[in-house]
Design brief:
282 residues, alpha/beta, 60s Ribosomal Protein L30, Chain: A, Alpha/beta knot, 2 domains, 6-stranded parallel β-sheet, 10 helices, methyltransferase
Length: 282
């Protein structure tokens, strides 16, 4: 495998096939965090793929290195390489099959990036800096599908939510697949890793928040009052929110179903709840 830094010479965009290139195997392996003694899996570098995801992560200061396919590049890839150079991040050319391996099958569109360890936000700081009087939080109870998490973070950012809360022991951590699905939303929306769900909800209630859970036995979503400081609690598909978490909610709501299928994907359901809350605020 060969790779080199991307040439940004305006007069010569293409790679010189006769140029001596340094071996990329050692560079990529170093990014993976491999060593002779071996490291724990959680210490390995996280890779993302996709132009929007890489660009937004670059602008948020989350990227260590950018890897761009060798050979002919379109204007967007060249612009992305220039943005990396402007921000002081190395942009390295590499073979497309290597991009496939780094992104583990995610559609990378000719670019991947190695990320710095994801920095979770502090919930107390998020609430202190929130300018809205009626902040909206999304708490995920047992949601383990990383693509659902990414989709929910993307919708939450678009809806103007203050943060998404992920329990440390009852949810998947932030992964490359989640970041790819979120299309750059992790660069803008705080994601907080919390401990005990019950204690977190108790503290939020002390600050004036209402907790609403999504549950099949709840009242009609479109008859509920979702104004004011609010925590929307979403459970795992199939299981729903846990009984203890359900008891901590002030009330529960259900989405009216008119077809033969009895439930929605959790990310779709979360989007409906979020935008109903947004509608009522507006």
């Amino acid at each position: 495998m060969n790779n080199r830094r991307v040439s940004l010479d305006k007069k010569e965009r293409k790679c010189d096939p006769h140029e001596k290139r340094r071996s990329g195997d050692q560079s990529i392996r170093g990014e993976r965090g491999f060593s002779s003694g071996g490291r724990r899996k959680e210490e390995e570098t996280c890779f993302i793929g996709g132009r929007n995801s890489v660009l937004e992560s670059l602008r948020a200061g989350q990227v260590k290195k950018v890897f761009i396919k060798s050979g002919k590049k379109d204007g967007r890839l060249l612009a992305l390489a220039e943005e990396a150079e402007r921000l002081g991040v190395a942009a390295i050319e590499t073979e497309e099959r290597t991009l496939d391996r780094l992104t583990e099958g995610v559609r990378h569109q000719g670019v991947a990036a190695s990320l710095k360890p994801y920095a979770y936000a502090d919930l107390e700081e998020v609430l202190s800096s929130c300018e809205r009087k009626d902040p909206l939080l999304i708490l995920l109870d047992g949601v383990e599908d990383v693509r659902n998490i990414g989709a929910i973070v993307r919708t939450a950012e678009c809806a103007g939510a203050a943060a998404v809360l992920l329990p440390k022991h009852r949810s998947s951590p932030v992964t490359a697949a989640a970041m790819k699905t979120a299309s750059g939303a992790f660069a803008y929306l705080p994601v907080c890793q919390i401990g005990n769900i019950r204690q977190t909800l108790e503290k939020l209630k002390e600050r004036g928040f209402w907790a609403v859970g999504a549950d099949m036995d709840g009242g009609d979503l479109y008859q509920a009052d979702l104004k004011g400081p609010l925590v929307i609690v979403m459970g795992a598909e199939g299981k729903g929110i846990s009984p203890l978490t359900k008891r901590m909610c002030d009330f529960c709501v259900r989405i009216p179903m008119r077809g033969k299928v009895s439930s929605l994907n959790v990310s779709v359901a979360a989007a409906l709840l979020m935008y109903e809350a947004v509608r009522q605020r507006n």
